[in-house]
Write a structure and sequence with these properties.
single chain, elongated, mainly alpha, about 5% strand
Length: about 240
């Protein structure tokens, strides 16, 4: 019995190697971490660090850019309480901020759990909680009153955009990182669609955390009458 099982495994491995050799690329080459919670923890840490750096930068920039006076900076805590008590309101931001910038940020939030291996509903919830409580009622509330547009557009439109980013990034990764036969264009798109994931994956942060990419292969086992049974193996 053990010999038969060993023989079947050897045959499957041989078929798998033959398919890979014929197709020149594995059946699935997109990045899928084996430790999804650990990956999400790492990518969220990068998001938090980036936001903290951005917040610190605003504090040292001149008032003409940050819109914060010395008095505002000296009373951040008091101003924060006042602003969250006044909101949410309909803001007067420019259209490109509400229709492009905030949905893009929501898509970046969405991509972190989605890339880690969570479902689209779980990823949309993550985008909602992160954008609402960390950004809108978190860091941004030190400078602005929470906005209805941002509370809705960031997670809602951002999750739809993020799912598009997720599928597009997998397509590019499965195409050896190329888009329209261009490795440079593919790399740029991967960076723009998920800069945090790009750092985790291509800068070795995930590897340093002990996170590995799942190896997935599809084996086609011949059956009677010319039919094949497909078997997906992850290791």
């Amino acid at each position: 019995m053990l010999r038969r099982i060993f023989l079947i495994i050897c045959i499957c491995c041989f078929i798998s190697k033959s398919l890979v050799a014929q197709n020149k690329t594995p059946d699935t080459t997109f990045f899928q971490p084996d430790l999804k919670y650990k990956y999400l923890l790492g990518s969220t840490g990068i998001l938090l660090s980036t936001a903290a750096i951005a917040f610190g930068t605003l504090l040292i920039l001149p008032e003409s850019i940050s819109k914060w006076s010395d008095e505002d900076i000296a009373n951040l805590g008091t101003n924060y309480v006042k602003k969250i008590n006044k909101g949410p309101v309909v803001d007067s931001d420019m259209l490109w901020i509400n229709l492009i910038a905030h949905p893009y940020a929501g898509a970046i939030y969405y991509m972190q759990p989605r890339t880690a291996g969570f479902s689209w509903t779980e990823s949309a919830l993550f985008s909602f909680f992160f954008s609402t409580f960390f950004w809108e009622y978190g860091i941004e509330a030190f400078a602005e009153i929470p906005s209805w547009q941002d509370l809705i557009m960031t997670p809602a439109v951002g999750s739809i955009l993020g799912e598009g980013f997720f599928r597009a990034s997998r397509y590019i990764q499965n195409n050896n990182g190329k888009l329209w036969k261009s490795k440079i264009l593919g790399t740029i798109c991967l960076l723009l669609m998920d800069p945090v994931g790009f750092v985790m994956r291509d800068f070795g942060v995930a590897k340093a955390m002990g996170i590995k990419n799942k190896n997935i292969a599809t084996l086609f086992i011949p059956q009677q009458q010319g039919f094949f049974t497909s078997l997906r193996i992850t290791w």
